Amino acid sequence: MTTTVDLVPGLITTREAIAATYGCGTFQGIEPADEAGKVFVYSDPSAGEEYGYTFDGRAEDDEFGPLYLYTGAGANGDQKPSGRNGSLLSHVEKNREVHLFVAHGKVPGGGAMQQRYIGEMVLDPIKPYDVRRGPGKDGVMRNVLVFRFRPAEGTTPAWKEADNLPAAVKTTVEVTDPAVTVPATVVLPQQTGVKVKKTEQHGTPETVADIPAGQRKVLRREGELVKAFAAHLAAKGHETHSFQITIAGEPGALTPDLYDTTDHVLYEAKGQTSRANVRMAIGQLADYRRHIPGRKTLRVAVLLPSEPTADVKDLLGEESVELVYQTDDGGFAGWPLAYSQP
């Protein structure tokens, strides 16, 4: 007799039991169950540790609340937003629920891995995934898709302290391709929100609200801006890339927007030309530059979608941060930078 598995956060079960109930596979980290209208995601941070990295785990809460990171499918070579990874990116469009499990030790007396059910998730509607660098099973560095999950409306996730992202063992700076991919807009279905953390409820994920559509547009504008500027630099014969910076004792990674190798300039882009955004960019650049090779001669610049106010320009000048902004004709004022590389 088949035992039905009820998806209640905190449940300890197995892949085989899930497959028997919902009709999915048992071997992959991402297992769609088409007839059931679900996608099952199995996270096992120890699998990444075997190859020298760990991207899976609960990240630090941001202004929108809880966040869980999950490494996509593909053991070798650059991971692609298709196939099993595509089943996550299209889960809203196809009206499929996403259910997250975390490896929970072996079945007593057996060899199968137990799975602890965290809860139903949705992809972050602003930024569905990050691109990270990590070794494949063959030891060759490649691009890895790291999905960004938020708890679905009405879900109180059953995660534990042990599910937090582990701190990096050492500080590393890994060269990456420029972050010029504009993330697809994920539109949440009606009545589905993303957990949002209110200041007065710092420790609870119970408040629910949709991330405003305007902020999605800002992120797309930022991505399009970086993409256009990278193309502009390439047309001028400049080589560009970026960095993945891990800090010893801290989880996650720092990822600057764009580095112009030819001129030794680090750029931080913002999708809005406002004082708050520029101040944030100044702080980010100050943090990034401490870890970039050749930092003593490194120049830093803010990349904006339009011209800021005169006082914001003065602020940038006083902080020795260059300014480049896009003009109405699609060009870039302020580039090339005013003074030559020492």
According to DSSP, the number of beta strands is 18
Binned strand content: 25-35%
Can you count the helices? Answer: 6
Helicity range: 10-25%
Low-confidence spans? 183-210
| CATH-defined topology of the largest domain | PUA domain-like
Structural class: alpha+beta
Q: Can you give the mean pLDDT?
A: 85
Description of the molecule:
The protein has two domains: 12-165 and 182-211, Roll (PUA domain-like), CATH 2.30.280; 219-333, Trna Endonuclease, Chain: A, domain 1, CATH 3.40.1350.10. Strands 1, 2, 3, 4, 5, 6, 7, 8 and 9 form a nine-stranded mixed beta sheet that branches. It is of the alpha+beta class and 342 residues long. A hairpin with a 4-residue loop joins β14 and β15. The radius of gyration is 22 Å and the shape is elongated. 20% of the residues lie in helices and 28% in strands. It starts with 11 loop residues before the first strand and ends in a 9-residue tail after the last strand. The protein contains six helices and 18 strands.
Short summary:
With 342 residues, this protein is of the alpha+beta class.
Layout of strands and helices, then pairs:
Layout: E1 12-14, H1 15-22, E2 30-33, E3 38-43, H2 45-49, E4 57-58, E5 68-71, H3 83-89, E6 97-106, E7 113-123, E8 129-135, E9 141-151, E10 172-176, E11 194-195, E12 208-209, H4 213-235, E13 240-246, E14 258-260, E15 265-269, H5 275-289, E16 299-304, H6 310-318, E17 322-326, E18 332-333
Parallel strand pairs: 3-6, 15-16, 16-17
Antiparallel strand pairs: 1-7, 2-3, 4-5, 5-9, 6-7, 7-9, 8-9, 10-13, 11-12, 13-14, 14-15, 17-18
